[in-house]
Amino acid sequence: MDCTKTLRLRIKDKHARVLSAMAREVNQVWNFCNETNHRAI
Q1: What's the DSSP call for residue 30?
Q2: Is the pLDDT of residue 15 over 70?
Q3: SS3 6
Q4: CB atoms within 10 A of CB 10
Q5: What pLDDT, on the 0 to 100 scale, is given for residue 39?
Q6: Considering only 13-17, 20-24, 30-34, 36-40, which range has the smallest mean pLDDT?
Q7: Are 37 and 30 a contacting pair, CB within 8 Å?
Q8: 11 closest CA partner among 3, 23, 19, 21
Q9: Contact of 19 with 9, CB cutoff 8 Å
Q10: pLDDT tens per residue across span 22-33
Q11: Distance of alpha carbon 24 from alpha carbon 10, whole angstroms
Q12: Residues 6+ apart with CB under 8 A from 38
């Protein structure tokens, strides 16, 4: 029997700036990986 749990977090406004910066960095890495993958093909 599979059990699925959901984690709910309440994000405060004071964390929005940090989370946006982290998301931007992750997006840059993702774009770099995709670009490198397309060049390799």
Answers
A1: H
A2: yes
A3: coil
A4: 4
A5: 92
A6: 13-17
A7: no
A8: 19
A9: no
A10: 999 999 999 999
A11: 21
A12: none
